Every structure is written in structure tokens, then in C-alpha cells.
Amino acid sequence: MAVPVRYRSDDEDSGRWQDFPFRDGDIVISTRSKCGTTWMQMICALLVFQRPELPAPLREGSRWLDWLVEPRSDVFDRLARQTHRRFIKTHTPLDGVPLLPSVDYVVVAREPIDAAVSLYHQGANLDRRRIAELAGTEPATSERAGLDAFLDEWIDWAGEPGERLDSLVGVMWHLSDAWQRRDERNVHLCRYEELLADLDGAMRRLAAQLRVEVPESRWPALVDAATFEQMRRRAEVVAPAPDGVLRSRRAFFRRGVAGEGADLLDGAARRRYERRFADLGGPALCRWIRTGS
């Protein structure tokens, strides 16, 4: 097995995966920020527990393993005490996680510019001083850029993916790595737009991939509980992060739409985005991200 790449930021360290004692059947949910992470966690919770009401808040049932806000020992201990099939969150690309044949890996893709807009708006909902306090780091002091300036830098930044995994370069690296593993039986790729267009069908396909049998009578309630509207209504239970990290749990679920990002770009910015998107992803991956084909 290849040695995983180590990805580190101010509040994440994928090196925490190295000593993690996996169990057969574990599910690793690997996404970029604002690409449907919490949505996929909720879907996996509903498939595992098979009832709309969760036994505990989602952030407790599905731990974010490599987030430095929570001590490694606490995360490992909480996961060790779980008796259900575990579904674990990470924003680390699959090349940074141990890949075992007995573990399932779910990667969610979203139109990158839409994710970038959501990421920008999420920034205003984060208490970065509280995050830094919990992670044991210094809080960022840089002035917050406007949306247009943020998107320009996000599109044009051209460093190594691991330096900024939430840049366009980083997002496309995450997806390209997963795309190259798409034929592996335990790697499952899903599109955010697919969840929006056909949530029932997407959940049924994922259940089959994860070898979860759901009685037909339970499907309507499970699908309803996974809708964006229901998740926002239950934000106190569903939204991630310990108390104080999010200024508003409800605001975490800002919008559940597709296509808003491109509409915010002027002609020149849109052309730059389309060119870089194509160059970084290649035709097959870019076509799949946008059409599923």
C-alpha cells in the first residue's frame, strides 16, 4: 500500500489517519469544503440508522478525524465507542488517506465555482478566533476580501494543490485523484447536482454501493429527512462543528442550488475559469462533473 501524502493546514492534519484503527465496513466521506460534506454525512447516517431521527447530533455520529479543533485522542476514543457502522468525515484527498479494501470511500463532486461562492459566504459565519483557540494556533488577521476579489484569486492561484486545497487547483486535484480510482469497487463517486436533481435515486444507488438494504416502506421518510429544507430546519442537530465555531448553525445551510457561481463572473473571469477548469481536469472528468456522463 502506498504511503499516504500528508496534507496540513492551520486546522487540519491528515497525518492523524496513519494510526487510525479501521474496522471492516467503515465509510470514509472525502470531499472538498462546501461540496456536500454534511449532506453526504446525513445520507450515510440515514442509511446506517434507517430512521429519520438521529440518535445523536450528526457531528457526534460522524467525526471529522483530521480536524485539529478536536484532540486526536478524543476523536479516536469516540469512534472506538461507536457500535454502528462508522462513517467518518475528511476533507483530505484519497491519496492522503490509507486505502484498505475492506473500507468504503465516498467522494462528492460539485461544480467548483459554486463551491467557491459557498465557501466565501461560509467565511462570514465562522468564528476564526474560536477555531484558532481550539486548534492551538494563531488566529488569521488578514482583511476579508470582497467576493469578486476572492473569486479572482481562487481562479488564478497556481501553486501546489496541497498548499491550498480549497483553491481551484486543490479542488480539481482532489477530484482528479478520485476520478483515477473510479473503477475500484470500494471507491464511490457522487455529484452534488445529482443529489439536487434526484435525491431518491442517488440515495438508492449509494445504498447499493455500500451494500445497505433498506425496506421499501422506509425510503420516503429517509429521503425527506435528507432534503436541504429538512436539514436546514434541523440545523441545531445536523450542522457541523462544536459550539462557538459557527456563528449560526442555520446560516450554514445558506442555499441548496446549482449554477450561481458562473452567473457572478464577468466575461473575462468566466473565460479564465473555464480554461483553468478544463486544463486541470481534462475532458472526461470535466464532462462527468457537469453531466454525470
Question: Could you walk me through the main structural features you see in this protein, from its secondary elements to its overall organization?
Answer:
The protein is of the alpha/beta class. It has a single domain (14-291), classed as Rossmann fold. 46% of the residues lie in helices and 7% in strands. It has 16 helices and 4 strands. It has helices at 37-49, 58-61, 72-81, 112-123, 128-135, 147-156, 168-179, 192-197, 199-209, 219-225, 228-233, 235-238, 249-252, 260-263, 267-281, 283-291; strands spanning 27-31, 87-90, 104-109, 187-191. A 4-stranded parallel beta sheet has the order 2-1-3-4, sandwiched between helices. Helix 4 (112-123) crosses helix 6 (147-156) and helix 7 (168-179) runs parallel beside helix 15. It starts with 26 loop residues before the first strand and ends with a helix. The mean pLDDT is 91.
In short:
The chain is built from 16 helices and four strands. By secondary structure, it is an alpha/beta fold.
Topology:
Elements: E1 27-31, H1 37-49, H2 58-61, H3 72-81, E2 87-90, E3 104-109, H4 112-123, H5 128-135, H6 147-156, H7 168-179, E4 187-191, H8 192-197, H9 199-209, H10 219-225, H11 228-233, H12 235-238, H13 249-252, H14 260-263, H15 267-281, H16 283-291
Parallel strand pairs: 1-2, 1-3, 3-4
Any idea how many domains? 1
Q: Compute the gyration radius: what is it? A: 18 Å
Query: Helix count?
Result: 16
Structural class designation: alpha/beta
The major sheet is characterized as:
4 strands, parallel
Q: Alpha-carbon distance between the termini?
A: 30 Å
CATH superfamily: P-loop containing nucleotide triphosphate hydrolases
Question: Mind telling me which CATH architecture this is?
Answer: 3-Layer(aba) Sandwich
Number of strands: 4
